[in-house]
Amino acid sequence: MHASQGRSAGLGLALASAFAFGGSGVAAKPLIEAGLDPLHVVWLRVAGAALVMLPVAWRHRDLLRRKPGLLLGFGLLAVAGVQAFYFASISRIPVGVALLIEYLAPALVLGWVRFVQRRPVTRAAALGVVLAVGGLACVVQVWSGLSFDLLGLLLALAAACCQVGYFVLSDQGSDEAEPADPLGVIAYGLLIGALVLTVVARPWGMDTDVLAGTADLDGTSVPAWLLLGWIILIATVLAYVTGVVSVRRLSPQVAGVVACLEAVVATVLAWVLLGEHLEAPQLIGGALVLVGAFIAQSTAPKPASEGPVAGSDGGGGAPVAGHGEAKEELSGGRPS
Length: 336
What we know:
The chain is mainly α. The chain is built from 16 helices and two strands.
């Protein structure tokens, strides 16, 4: 019962994270159309979130001594890397193609867990990945305007690899006696990501007048600062917090598949708020993503005690982090 409740809570958090992340594009697009450079929007997003989480970083400053590698990796990969490589890729290839390649991350997570960490994975998770990726191909309409650009595809693949880092690092050390508090990891990850993106985005050249004006949201004038506030507080702070905690309550591969719902959320919100209408293939693809996410989370990953992994050298793999019975450690590491 306890494990089932833990998975249900983890699924709810993963869904909340997908919805929060999915709303970032709808809020960012009007700001970009109003005159802000995409990389400047990303910098504002990460730097603003880092400021919000600064008190949390101070409270968990012991992590700088205990987990410097984890914090650096999370900041470089899960925050700065995903954002920078994705925006670089869409400057060369269609957004739909870049998004699909980036969301191959759940499949890459599955490969990492199975072949690098040598942990067993469920057939449900594998089937969920296949359905979710196939559904994403329909949601983003990958066949529309496809053009082959080797550098653009490599940049999108780099974004996918960085997203693998997000899921793997979010789970890192969750089975330790004193796990790193997820809020502290996120806070320092955002700070490090903001520093890296400052070099990449060069915000001193930003047109700050845009933030004092309004942006057009499908014919409605909305204060630019309100859209930016949504991006920072909901699409970044809330999204990362719920996302990292969900990985610890589920597992990297299952949470990764549920995260594919972000593309569905983004498309639906664009339909409702920006007037970008969905077509039949996108509706079908959205349904496939939902089915894939449900299948993936419906069965917990197999514990290593059940026996050796098929195809391994006979040694039992480590238990998959994310089981409900191991998650009491998480609450013990949270701020009260």
